[in-house]
Specification:
The protein is of the alpha/beta class and about 375 residues long. It has two domains: about 1-180 and about 365-375, Rossmann fold (3-Layer(aba) Sandwich); about 180-360, 3-Layer(aba) Sandwich (Rossmann fold), CATH 3.40.50.2000. It contains 14 helices and 16 strands. Strands 3-4-2-1-7-8-9-10 form an eight-stranded mixed beta sheet, with helices on both faces. A six-stranded parallel beta sheet has the order 13-12-11-14-15-16, with helices on both faces. Helix 8 (about 240-250) links the parallel strand 12 (about 230-235) and strand 13 (about 255-260).
Amino acid sequence: MKILHVGKFFHPYHGGMENFLTDLVLEQTFRGLDSSVIVHHHNTFQSTTHEIIKSVAVTRTLSLGQMVYAPLAPTFGYHLAKAIAGIQPDIIHLHLPNLSAFWILFIDKKIPLVLQWQSDVVRSKVDERLSFFYPTYRVLEVKLLERAQAVIASSENYLRESEILQPFKEKTSVIPLGLNPDRIYRPSQEEIDKVKKRFDGFLVLSVGRFTYYKGFEYLIDAAKDVPEASFVIVGDGPLRNKMIQKISHAGLQNRFFLPGSLSDKELHTIMASCDLFCLPSIERTEAFGIVLLEAMVFGKPLITTDIEGSAVNWVNLAEETGLVVRSADAAALAKGINSLLRNPEARIEMSHRARKRLNKLFRIQAVSEKILALYSTLQTPPIGGL
């Protein structure tokens, strides 16, 4: 079976969508599927490239930057049509949201289409540009949903609260996102001890792109009321400098650190060394939280926020794998962090449950099996000319 995946970016670019796409494609290839990928180049203005990564053919198209979080890729449609003609896939698997995925509406009408619905495009209260552009986006979004044979939502929570998916519930399957724990770097005790010595004391870690919905400003404010802890946020993005200034104004430079983007080895070493992982997101754009799964690999207790309709608080079960606190509320974050800081027994119990939940639900092997079963139900007509 030939599968063509259409995404935004691919390894070595780091992000929840990208990590899932990479793990899924490599697992499919391991299982004998002929999977290919077309994405945007994560380096702006770099020419379109074609490469083989662990037997997977990856095309990265020219990107001129981003507009409202969407890559500007004027040649994407050309390369997508070329890939379809050359590969002649049995199934096209689109990973959304992704503006370039709409090219499929003008290129092909025959090949079965699967939509991996990573998240809705939420009309944000924080970034008004999304509300301005969304009506146009929605027209194409609905046409794509109508064209698809199958849609995959990451949780019952998200499917239930997604307005755009309601008319298409009959062809929507709930399959969680997942990851391959084997790709996670496991640091030595010496490496862990080195990190613990550097940050000295209780360490709270967060990871993500510095963008409007991540809520990192609330974690910075919360740190003022958790004097016994140090904090690290790993990642980069347009709001990072603003957060650096906020940390400086709050006088937290000795306890709050923003090291930027790190290698997998560096990230996983800090993750193995932290005492608590926190995802303080404030909007439903945070639809699942793949990075939570990485923290669960190391058995870290979690703190997340009560984003209505998101799968985040299905991944992290309140009082089982961690705590769930009120969204956009620094005082609630501080209270939750202090609670776990002072209760090591609860952290140990949550650690065990986090690992158990990961192994039960979120390993990429099990997720890939469910997606393959979905593929097998699709009607695949003979592929002629496009």
